[in-house]
Amino acid sequence: MVRQMQGKRDINFGELKLREIYSKFGLLSNPFPVTGIAAEDPGFAPFDELITKELTAFVQDTYTRQFFGGFIIIGEYGFGKTYILKHLERRINESLMMRGEDRACAIYVMNPRSSADQFITSILESFGMHNFLVMAWHLVTERLAEELRIKGEALAKELTPKPMQLNFFDTQESRKPFVLRQDLLSNPMKFIDEAYRAKVNMARIAKFAEDTFLPIFKVPDIAKGLAALSHFGEADSLMQWVEWLNYTKFKRSIKKDISEQEFFHAVMTVFRRNGYRHVYVLVDEFEDIRELGKRERMEYLSRLRDIIEYNLEYFSIVLCVKRDAWDSIAEAHPAFVERFARGAELKDLSVEQAKSMIVEYLASVADKATKKSDDPLYPFTQEAVEEIVRRSAGVPRVILELCYILMEYAAQQNKIIDREMARQVDSIRESILFEKRRQMSL
User: Which of 73, 99, 265, 267 is most exposed by smallest CB count within 10 Å?
Assistant: First the structure.
């Protein structure tokens, strides 16, 4: 990996290969996360079947009725709350995102931030500001296509400067102005890019867009801001539009006030008019609001409840929170908690649940060419899993961490992982850490 180069040592990855020490177990690598924190979504269903059942029923109900639902997942650190949210996000988006006019999407939000307006901004950032702006401008080009169908060449001439008119005709088809071809109208950002390139009447397009946004956002300043087309190009316009989607920033400067619930309603309207029948907001680490002062926390919860009450259709929230934090929220603001009538509490894993989890991780890196055993738990024994669960108290994150350590040691020693090895996991951890430190010091 390190080679000589003109008297100097150089890093060379040309001969990099997967470590073969795991092939003795029929595996390509150590599948367990080194810190016990799982990847965003390894693809496994939650190992608590109750959680899977409850979340499935919740999504089915809210998607069908198109009415708000609040779901609470309670669990301590290390019990897999983030994993469950990321898995739910993937399953909703894979299954429901492409359903035409009956679509649904899930938006994962890492933490609730410090206020209701920042909460809205974090949703848009997680979904993707650019993605949202494409949806917003799709409403403009969709309406433009309808107006073109009705008015025809009259509308085309409004957008096309006379001196440049001959440059915009599509001679292969109907000789309509090039910027109004159907393939452009169905692709908002491409339409805007072509409009800039062709130097069409940008002020007229901006006014058309403003008239489209005003019934949605209600506030002229916002409609005009989202419709403004910079003279410098699409990228400059995009940056300006993003600023108008940052509720915290623009609300200080607009002439007419707009509340969080009204702005969020406008955001949901853009989703609905783009074919989304439901939007699921998945909020992780909601207990972080305890870092706020009592007054700020109460105001946040009150405004978040106002957002819910004002938008009881087409969206739902799933919150993950620790038990003590949820209890304190329930005591301080019962009206907010009432909107989360469904939920489940994560418990420590049983031996059978832990066994299923280990089997799933092993299967994810199985190598058929070097398979050594028909036992899906191999190289772990049933007794080793029992010991791992006992030492971890059934906490998923700790189970995964212990499995990583034991797998590393077993591969180095060419041994299966039995109860005796599991009992020595603490000393094994220290020896592995010592060896890594020694190698780093060389």
Answer: 99
